[in-house]
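Thread: Beta-xylanase, structure

OP (GT): Posting the sequence first so everyone is looking at the same thing. Length is 345 residues per the record. Can we get the structure tokens written out before standup tomorrow? I want them in the notebook alongside the other entries.
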Amino acid sequence: PGSLEAAAARTGRRFGSAFAWGPPGHDGGTFANPSYAALLESECAILVPENEMKWQALRPTPDRFDFDRFDAMMAYAQAKGFAVRGHNLLWHQPKWMPRWEESYNFGTRPASEAARLLSQHIDTVCTRYGTRIESYDVVNEAVNPADGTLYETALSRAMGGATATLDHAFRAARASAPHAQLVYNDYMSWEPGNAAHRAGVLRLLEGFRARGVPVDALGVQSHIITQGPDTARIVGQLQPDWSRFLNAVTAMGYRLVITELDVRDNALPADPSPRDRAVADFTRAYLDVMLDYPQLGDILVWGMADRYSWIEGFEPRPDKAPRRPCPYDRAFTAKPMRTAIVDAL
Ligand code: XIL
């Protein structure tokens, strides 16, 4: 009853986390690590694979699929009764496409080859897992935060451009997974430097509606960043633009999902205790804004424990103090951030 999952359920929502594959007993954020699995099982109702469903993982070559790791994760999730989100069917950035994509020489192949590859990918994944996956990040991070334009990849150039490619992905997902919630997932945020990113996402979502593309929800990744200890003042500055953005998104009829919540503890001294306090306050303030929207459904963190968070590798603190982005610390003890989530709910 005291779990994050139960707290979310009281508001008609589900709480969940990313998880990974690993060999038995592996010291990682995996179901095969008993300490981590215990956290998942006590706190979560829904899980999402951190990397194992991406093209790089599932599709080592254009003509071969490798489902072993993700199948093992699905088997665990099913055995324990978790709901599962799919992440993702297309990570629309050159650097996140599989390595073979850039050298596939679409120009020397039939014009339909790029569309065939994309359709085949989405259909193969969606058909394999059927109703076991309830919600998909169909397209991930297609908007360039620098200017709000859509990225182009070798695949999208061969399909006549990004817009046609993203539309195609959603239509293919709807056809192959008619039961599933289809999500556009991105990291636009409430940071002050993020206006162009937000505007680009809004344009994309407007375009989907104008063209009748089947998109159900915006995935708000929520890799949020503290800017100092004075949470009330900082949030007071960030919140108005962010609420305007969320109002515009929901006014178009989109639902919202918090898909990857974690906190980067920037502009805070290294001492863990006040740092955890500020992270918790910031989390609470952020969730208070988000939870005002009845359109917000599932809330997932990008990892339950600091020990395995991707943030350490992605952006270490300049002073090298270990990052503390998650609800549980490196020894699997609950942090103030966990309490903040319960209190916000
Ligand atoms: C990250 C994983 O956590 C890392 O392990 C991997 O090296 C790179 O990808 N936005 C997303 C996620 O949509 O897929 C990313 O996950 C984090 C940012």
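GT: Both are above now. Quick notes for whoever picks this up: The domain at 4-344 is CATH 3.20.20.80 (TIM Barrel). Residues 263 and 325 are 4 Å apart (CA to CA).
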